[in-house]
Amino acid sequence: MTDTIWALVPAATRWLDAANGRDDAELGCRMLKVTEEAGEAASAWIGLRGQNPRKGVTHTKEDVAAELADVVITALVAIESLGLNARETLETTAAKVQARIPHL
Asked: Is the pLDDT of residue 104 over 60?
């Protein structure tokens, strides 16, 4: 990930804190926002596949990718909002996943 992303995550967290505070209700909303963004990614996939006959094909692969990127950023902000370092958390989790993948 780029320095832009790692600068964005704490900045977005501070912005949300300033606008909405960081009580339990707000933290809950930030967790729910991850699910909302995932739903938008699912909706874009349905639109790409034309699964709604009334609407037809409404999205592109790029739309799906952009929605998935929103999920990633939203999840990183949620991690940071818990008072944790999102970058360290992601790197630790990535190392766990990497350890499960057989090396060829």
From this structure: no
CB distance 81 to 20 below 8 Å: no
Distance, first Cα to last Cα, the chain: 25
Say what the pTM is: 0.92
Question: Which of 45, 44, 47 has its CA nearest to residue 55?
Answer: 47
The chain-wide mean pLDDT, for the chain, equals 96
Q: How far apart are CA 17 and CA 89, in angstroms?
A: 20
d(CA 91, CA 6): 12
Q: What CA–CA distances, in Å, run from 19 to 14, 22, 26, 52, 69? A: 9, 9, 10, 37, 23
Nearest-5° Cα angle at 75, 73 to 79 = 115
